[in-house]
Design goal:
globular; 12 helices
Amino acid sequence: MNAALRAGRSRGLIELRQSVTNGGDLFNHLLWPALMLIALWFLRDHQFGTALLPSILGMNTAMAMISMSQHLTADHEDGTLLRAKATPHGMLGYLTGKLISVTGGLLLDLALFLLPALLLIHGLALHRPAAWLLLATMLLLGLAATLPAGAILGAIFTSARSQGVLTLPVLAVIAVSGIFYPITALPGWLQGLAQTFPIYWLGLGMRAALLPASAATTEIGNSWRHLETVAALSAWALAGLLIAPPVLRRMARRTPLTPARKGLPPRHG
């Protein structure tokens, strides 16, 4: 098992390094921060821009689940999961590597966005020592809540075509999660729906970390609801950790050993 963990760590670091040296992957790392920074540039003198910055951080942290699911789907299609399954503790090493590469890529994207954004946006409460601690806590809780969920989705949607079905529901959840406008402006039933997903809680947690206390007046109950945020994200993390292992084992068992995946031409007739 220790050997599998070491192999997974090496694999994850190699994949992360390749993602910043390969032209196409590097472009993807730069594209999202650039688009968000352009949006903030036009809102830099507006109060809405101040609230938008932490909301974007929360939204992108939650999107780690989509990135994780896309990796698993692609590796299922090209036979990578099959090769991992065929080695002792191979799935453990594989998942370790994916956790490292996806987490590292997310942290890189967030850094590329946050550091320039802090120069554009004013009114953040970064002078408080607790701000950075709360920001780091939300990031860790967010990853714990979303990465197992992404692994589950990657096991359910086993092709790139079926994985695309996720796009519209995710966009709908983002639309009602208070990322781009106060959630209190929505009908009560939509507010309740949004609170069942981690995107809302991550956005709220990031705003609590980076905005002054007075900004809580636009939130539900005029409060940052720290305890509820920790409880909701912890519940997602616990559910994911309980559900993901059996789902992934089931996916590995049903991965067929076809001639094409063995590198042989398919038989006809």
